Each structure stands twice: as structure tokens, then as C-alpha cells.
Amino acid sequence: MFSQLRSRVDSRGDKARHDGASHYTTALSGQFEQDLASEARSLTDIVIVIVSWNVWDHLRACLTSIQNQSQPIDESHASTKSALASSTFVRRFGPHNEATLQVVVLDNASEDATTTLLTNRFPWVQTIFSDENLGFTGGNNRALEAMGLDVRIDEKPAPDNGQAGHQPSPAAPARFIYFLNPDTELLPGSLWALYRGIDQDGTIGAIGPQLRYADGALQSSRRRFPGPLTGFFESTWLERTWPRNPWTRHYHLADWPADARQDVDWLVGAALLVRGEALTALGGFDPQFFMYSEETDLCRRIRRAGWRVVYDPAAIVIHAEGRSSGQVSARRHILFNRSKVRYARKWHGPLWAALLRCYLLAEFRLQIACESLKAFLGHRRDLRRDRIAAYRDVLRSSLD
Fold first, then answer.
1. What are phi and psi of 95, to 5 degrees?
2. What are the start-end ranges of the E strands in 42-188?
3. Theoretical Cys-Cys bridge with 319: which of 55, 171, 211, 305, CB 3.0 to 4.6 Å?
4. With pLDDT > 90 as the criterion, what percentage of the chain qualifies?
């Protein structure tokens, strides 16, 4: 049924594009979403959600790493999991193949090979194609909506201190949702380690792995919540000129070893496994964050609701980092710093947000002056022109 349904969805998506529809997601309402919501809710231990944009080679490697540590359902398991046996989209994983997963990829209007190769290369992946770039937040929320989750974050009931046990509420889209970037690869055993870590402890609302670069170097992924001064030092000239400042060290948990399992405030969203019950209670990602700071905000709401956020280095995921956002330099600067300002406004108040915004804009003006001087002196003028253009775009945005 799913393969037939997906063909209809794809053709409806093509028709929507020809008819001038705003995005593919309008073609995915109705029976497709009802079936996806039903299967995720009643059948699956983990639904992996991947939002992708123009990174087919990385997405292919990511999905291959998932495929390599899971298996499709076969008829030999029909006696114990008869409801799963007929589904093309459910796979088994674990030492004894005792857990189940599904994968949903939302494509953010890619212009590379993704739209033509994804469904043929990975027929077990459920796909949602958008005709516009919904961002990391919008893409993940759209996938959650397709699974039947109410992603609105206002007026959500508070959970019972995260002690509701191992079974999700009836409205949960799945037992656990694994938000995964397309430029990641799961090392063998990492999926099972994270799953067992959160499955065995009902107090954990979110858990994340150790991230490493492709060369094996450790990638910082665990954080304390940013304080009012953090935004002035995070990825700014102040941090580069004073890299060991106390605010940055505190923020990056420099006083805790990276090889120890530990409770943290928040984890980088490149690989974040979240309890379905927590998402049901709290909603999805806050839509004011198009990209960046959205996982910080989600983890803060999870922590405030009484659940724990845990870093587990026993699970290792390779993360190339920035492959999607790096394609648009000026846009990346705008989104990163705008999200910092919006986070400061939400959690520290309008005064701190206004001060941070003024400081960041002043820093970009200073960078334009420095780049202009370097260009005048003849140092890599093409690079200087590109940077000046990007920084001017930031100033024009006003980071509003």
C-alpha cells in the first residue's frame, strides 16, 4: 500500500508544482499522513527524521549507515510482529533485531540529485518533498505534523515530571523521534546505544551521542544553557581574541570530560533522540528559529518540564557539519546571529536582546572595515569582496 501511495503522492506533488502550489507539503495531506501517523504511533520504537537540502552525497551516506545496522521486516517475524510484516517502511535493529525504526526524509526543495534518486535508491524511506526551503525547524515540524503531532508550543500540558514510564501517550507519534542531520553517519552500535539509554530510563527526555569529524577528531556537542553574556562571546571576535574566556569555557562544559556519560543542559541538534511523549507534551521546535538555537530552546523546554537531557559518548556519530547552511554564507550569518538575538529575547528579556543585537551589528561593521583595508592592500581581493557583500547583507537584515 505504501509504495502505491507514495507514487500517488509524487505525482500529486508534480501536479502541485505545475499548478503553482506554494510547496509539496500541500500534496501530502489526507490519507498519506493518516497512514504515516498511524504506523509511527502504533508500530515503531524510533522514527528517524532527516531534513535535507542539496546534500545528496551526504544524505546517501547517512541512509546507508542506517541501512547497514538495520534490516527489513521479513515473514519469519510475522508470528510476533504480524502488523509489521507487510510494511515496506519498517526495519528492525538491535543485537537481536528486537527494536523497530522508520525513516522520514523531508527534502527542502533540493536542486541536486536528491529528488530523482532518493526514492529509487532507498525505497524503504518515506519521503516528503517541499517546493520551498522550510528550514531546519520548519522541515522537522512538517515531518512531525505528517505523523500526527501537534507541533504548537503554546499552552501545552505539563508532564508528570518526566516519570510517565516507558510507554508514550496515545497521541505520541512514536516512542522516540531521532532528529538527524543529513551530513551524519551512524557508527555501528550507536543507534542501539542511544535507544537503550533512553528506553531504560523514563526520566530522560532527550539523549545525544558523541559527535566526531570525518578525521576522527572530537566535535563539541554538549552545552550549558547560554547566559546573558554568552552571545557576546560565542563565535564572535571576542571569543577569537580571548578563546579561554570563562563564559565560553562554562558554555562548552570545559570542566567536564567529553568521554563520560553525563547530564547536560542541551545537545547539538545534528543527532538528537527525543522521547515522543515529551514532544507530545511540549510541541515541536519553536518556529521563530528558522535555523540555529532551535535545539537549545527545545532542550530548555524539556529540562524545564522535568525531564533530563543526557550526553552518551558510547554512541558515536560522524558529523561533517554545516554542509547545507555552508552553501549560503550571508544567509548563514544572518540566521545564526538572528537566532541568537531571538533566543536572548525569549529567555533573557528584550533588554539583553537589544544589547546583543547592537553589539553584533557593530562587529559586522568593524569586519567590513577590516576586509576593506585588506582589499585595498591587495590581499585576496575576490575573497574580501565576497565577505564584504555577505556582511553588508547582514547589516541590511538588521538581525530582526
1. -55, -35
2. 46-52, 71-72, 91-93, 99-108, 126-130, 176-180, 184-186
3. 211
4. 69
**pLDDT mean over 232-247:** 86
The domain spanning residue 297 has which CATH number? 3.90.550.10
Question: 267 pairs with which residues across the strands?
Answer: 222
Cell numbers linked to 286: 519553536
DSSP single-letter state for residue 241? H
3-state SS class at 85: helix
Determine phi and psi for 187, rounding to 5 degrees. Answer: -75, 155
Q: Give the per-residue pLDDT at 90.
A: 93
Cβ(211)–Cβ(270) below 8 Å: yes
Compute the residue count for the chain: 400
The residues pairing with 211 across neighbouring beta strands, listed in sequence order, are 219, 317
pTM: 0.85
Sequence-separated (6 or more) residues with CB below 8 Å from residue 304: none
Do residues 100 and 84 touch, judged by C-beta distance below 8 A?
yes
Supply the DSSP symbol for 289: -
Task: Give the whole-angstrom CA distance, residue 381 versus residue 377.
Answer: 9
Give the integer Cα–Cα distance in Å for 72 and 137.
29
Position 166: which residue type?
H
For residue 115, the Cα-to-chain-centroid distance in whole angstroms is 20
With pLDDT > 70 as the criterion, what percentage of the chain qualifies? Answer: 80
pLDDT at residue 169, as a whole number: 57
Task: Among 267, 298, 326, identify where a domain stops.
Answer: 326
- The C-alpha atoms of residue 336 and residue 227 are separated, in whole angstroms, by 17
Co-location of 272 and 298 in the same domain? yes
- Inform me whether the pLDDT recorded for 10 exceeds 90: no
What mean pLDDT comes out for the span 338-365? Answer: 96
Verify that 296 and 334 share a domain, yes or no. no
* Phi, psi of 85, deg, nearest 5: -60, -30
Whether residue 337 lies inside any domain: the answer is: yes
Domain count across the chain: 2
Quote the domain boundaries for residue 380.
328-397
